[in-house]
Write a sequence for this structure.
């Protein structure tokens, strides 16, 4: 078990980053803790000489950074997506500290050796939108002083990467008998969950349970429900099979 085998499957995702210097500083923060998988969702400026300068030599992270047009694309193959937020959000979604998040990430990576995990950071001034949060199963926060919680995005990524590295080293130091590890179910990917949500919405419109002109918060509440449940791949297949059977029954 090598450091890369775990840490390379952690995606640090930066959404709509305004200042290229923050991208470079984030790359430096990642590289010093052994993480290299950086994804940028519609950055304002990239590549950039400023990003290169602020990376302090972490050019492999910048050179291999994936640039995509949407968060959905960035996390499509992930088993778990964690949103980072400093704001109090009144959403029924599991929320925990960065230390607890890092612990869960390492446990899940040890159980599932193929699918990556994404940790998502919003734009410097506005953070993540509710639409971004819809794609996540967890909310993560970094404890700060009550009267001043303005943490720079690169600093937030540094704290996160430190906690991940610390938990990884603790995992390595455990004397684990691999034969005693329990086989886990294959988690569903974010892309498969999105297919399910689209399928569910389609059926609800067909049955007139959902008015697409007046959706209100129904789909968001259903997303929260299923994201809390974390259905695995077999369960997603069963749910979609039920939806398909309902659609066939309607047509007949």
């Amino acid at each position: 078990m090598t450091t890369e085998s775990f840490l390379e499957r952690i995606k640090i995702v930066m959404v709509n980053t305004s200042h290229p210097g923050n991208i470079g500083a984030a790359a430096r923060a990642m590289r010093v803790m052994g993480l290299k998988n950086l994804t940028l969702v519609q950055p304002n400026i990239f590549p950039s000489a400023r990003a290169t300068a602020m990376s302090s030599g972490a050019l492999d992270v910048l050179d291999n950074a994936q640039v995509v047009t949407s968060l959905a694309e960035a996390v499509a193959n992930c088993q778990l997506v964690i949103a980072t937020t400093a704001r109090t959000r009144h959403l029924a979604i599991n929320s925990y500290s960065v230390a607890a998040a890092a612990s869960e990430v390492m446990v899940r990576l040890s159980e599932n050796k193929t699918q990556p995990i994404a940790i998502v950071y919003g734009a410097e001034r506005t953070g993540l939108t509710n639409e971004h949060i819809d794609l996540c199963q967890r909310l993560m926060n970094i404890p700060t002083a009550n009267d001043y919680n303005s943490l720079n995005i690169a600093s937030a990524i540094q704290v996160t990467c430190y906690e991940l590295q610390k938990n990884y080293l603790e995992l390595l130091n455990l004397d684990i008998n691999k034969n005693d590890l329990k086989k886990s179910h294959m988690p569903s990917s974010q892309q498969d969950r999105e297919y399910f949500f689209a399928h569910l919405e389609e059926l609800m419109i067909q049955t007139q349970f959902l008015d697409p002109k007046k959706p209100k918060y129904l789909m968001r509440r259903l997303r929260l429900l299923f994201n809390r449940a974390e259905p695995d791949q077999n369960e997603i297949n069963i749910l979609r099979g039920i939806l398909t059977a309902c659609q066939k029954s309607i047509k007949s």
Notes: The two ends are 54 Å apart (CA to CA). Confidence is low (pLDDT under 50) at residues 175-183.
